[in-house]
Amino acid sequence: MIPQEIIRRKRNGDVLSTDEIQSFITALSAGKLSEGQIGAFAMAVWFRGMSRGETVALTLAMARSGDVLTWPGIDRPIVDKHSTGGVGDNVSLMLAPIAAACGLAVPMISGRGLGHTGGTLDKLESIPGYEITPDPALFRNVVSQAGCAIIGQTSSLAPADGKLYAVRDVTATVDSIPLITASILSKKLAAGLQTLVLDVKTGNGAFMADHAQAKLLAQSLVDVANGAGIKTTALITDMNQPLADAAGNAVEIWNCLDFLSGKKAGTRLETVVVAFAAEMLVSSGICPSLQDGEVKAREALASGKAAEIFSRMVHMLGGPADFVDKPARYLVKAPIEMPVLVSESGWLSACDAREIGLAVIDLGGGRRRPEDKIDHRVGFSALLPLGTRVDKGDRLAIVHAASEAAAQKAAASIASSYRIHGKTPSLPPVVSDRI
């Protein structure tokens, strides 16, 4: 089929056939389209949208543009989770071993930081020796033996997505719900999943700041994923403040280890992790109800089994065998640790989570350009949650920085990101909707 005819039809608002969409993606994968044609197609979709059937066809075509993994010999349900990104969102690090401890197999293909949000791969690279791009045989072996493996996307998985995204990124078409949906789900389909749970963030630290838009995206993702053959549910979660009490890379690995050792009970982070574990267990048929799933997840955490699996995964992927027991031996600390003090008494009532994420980038903990190197040591820890009563001079957070000047700038950014009021604030629930 002639690419420009497909572009014209979508530009005019026509519904494309499965064959038309497959033809366009095949040509894209083969390098037979110009950047102008790819950009025109993306812009036409941005303006005209896509039906559910079109989005399913686009997702499947992109998923099949490269290798599609299979998992012979693994008799456990194959599951995964995806987050639309946030600040202090290290859920995947704990969720994967908890789910594995409960009898699931979790081949988790994660990404790097994007904009103000942190990336799971960047955090894992804080661990010396950890291999985020293992060969397929090792990846399969780790999933089989440890129960989970968190790695990066290889060039052979959904390569059409990478080519399309590169053009979307420079043509102002990233924020198209059909294109976002196909981009996210094509990689998950290529991973050979049976069930999937989605964490769609909303709030000032999320890409979808508006709750109604977040619900539209979540519904699109669930409808298309189920239409493409993956049993899928989604939770909408709050990102009006950092999810964990740490934001950065190595500091979030510390946070993960504290969580797995039971030191984060009662936190917003625990609520989200347990909720997603329960979703995984119910969707895969391991547990009959979400309540049973939560109980099973908490047991896996309390018994230490989840921590053991995380340790095994790290070691099998090249990290130290005693990393979980002796993290201080391997996680390099920043030379400057500076407390951030509150300037008045009252209740922490609001914060700008996006600004906190940008402050991590300013410290060197994220990228402004794809080729930038990350300083894994820097970030924030001991961040107080909203709703906390503070007195003037109390510690709000700790800055981890490479220099005194960088620490002072970051401390000022954190202090200005929070609002303190004289009465207890009304805060949104951390999990607001299930779709």
Describe the structure.
The structure is a single chain. The protein has 435 residues and is α/β, with parallel strands linked by helices. The chain folds into three domains: 3-64, Up-down Bundle (Transferase, Pyrimidine Nucleoside Phosphorylase, Chain A, domain 3); 79-317, 3-Layer(aba) Sandwich (Pyrimidine Nucleoside Phosphorylase, Chain A, domain 2), CATH 3.40.1030; 334-421, Pyrimidine nucleoside phosphorylase-like, C-terminal domain (Aldehyde Oxidoreductase, domain 3, Alpha-Beta Complex), CATH 3.90.1170.30. The chain contains 16 helices and 13 strands. The chain has helices at 3-11, 18-29, 35-48, 52-63, 91-101, 120-124, 136-146, 159-169, 177-190, 211-227, 250-260, 268-283, 290-302, 305-316, 353-363, 404-417; strands at residues 79-83, 106-110, 148-152, 195-202, 231-238, 247-248, 336-341, 346-351, 379-381, 389-390, 395-401, 418-421, 431-434. The strands form four sheets. It has a four-stranded mixed sheet with strand order 1-4-5-13, sandwiched between helices. Strands 6-9-11-7 form a four-stranded antiparallel sheet, with helices on both faces. A three-stranded antiparallel sheet has the order 10-8-12. Helix 2 (18-29) packs parallel to helix 4 (52-63) and helix 2 crosses helix 8.
